[in-house]
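We treat protein structure as text, and this decision shapes the records that our systems exchange. The remainder of this section carries one protein's record, kept here as part of the documentation:
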Amino acid sequence: MNLLSIGGSDPSSGAGIQSDVRIFSKFDVQCLTVITSITGQNTSDFGKIEPVSKKILENQLESIITDFKIDGIKIGMVYNSEIIKVIYKYLKKLDVPIVVDPVIKSTTGGMLIEKSAIVDFKKFIIPLATIITPNKFEAEILTNTKINSKNKPEKTAKMIQKMGARNVVITGIEEKNKKISDFILETNKKYFLDDEKISKINRGSGGIHSAIALYGIIKFKNIKKSLEFAKQITLNSIKNSKKVGKGFEVTNFEKLDEYEIELSKAIDEFTKIKKIVENIPECQTNFVFSKPKPKSIKEIVGISGRIVKAGEKAVVAGNIEYGGSKHVATALLSVNKKYSKIQSAINLKFRESTISKIKKMKWNTYDYDRSQEPKNIKKNGSTIAWGIKNAIKNSKKAPDVIFHKGDFGKEPMIIVFGETPEVVIKKIQKLFKS
């Protein structure tokens, strides 16, 4: 995959071109670059800006466009009208996804676009955008309106969409319940992506979000999924930010592959289900997602600890990693050998009432009797593989659920299966819908 980043140079690598190179390389992407401006900045202060000449900007663009197949483009810092018009001239005929990150002001206080150029930015750059990702401050500057109780983010997003952007994402909208939201306006739908507010000021989160959103569009070919993917990675980078200089912390980007990200999002959804703690068993819960046709649990990502009960809340105790689960991963591995499309599973507390609901919904449900387990199986620790194999031995349809009623000293259990963590979560939400 070849992705082109057009923007300013940041010598601290906290943002700008250097940050994009760092991010894309984590995903084995060839990051092509066109530098629009040289800046002098670090984690504490913003110094000077020197925009590149029209001649060298045109030469950079022509060099890249004539030599490479470009799969997508991110546009960041565009300092003046001359730069804006040159970029428009070269990109207007390209049929590739373009993500516009309208950087107006740096975290350290420097203005990254001339005020006189904002009119041309709206006229020439915004219409190029497959997705535009302003934060609340940037959206207000672009529309000359305030986002508040009277002017909802939808109104502001529609104003930006009328400027020509196909999809608008306004990030960092704070809510009263300690949540922070992104408002998304697609061509024909609108929604919020919510998460807990992280009380940190850092550099680079906006650049990571827009870069991963571009990668996601090409990878998933779905706006919402790409933005969920970008949000999860951005939040992780903020949580893991490091103090590398004397000033603001810099986002610390660690590579998470698509399986880890998708599982992480589903786990987050699981913990938000009302009264879900009542359905976490004594041995606690694990949630897993496998690569296609896994050969061992080392190819199945899960939680190294568990999802545990903490009062009335479900809390993740442990890291998401390959080989992180043994029991639920072994169950998934056993099902996947017969039904290769089943790549995700979660275990829940056994309740007769839950089984009754499942049967009413006519899910494909199988069970096994642990009391019939051969002694040699108990000794060599192959209980789960034996049980799952026996449960689906004569099955003709992939399981939605497999359960057992326990044995002496063994807790009964329900395991819900699906093609992806998203499918599993939808089943659980339907099952425990109040």
Q: What stands out?
A: The longest helix spans residues 223-239. The mean pLDDT is 87. The CA atoms of residues 289 and 344 lie 4 Å apart.
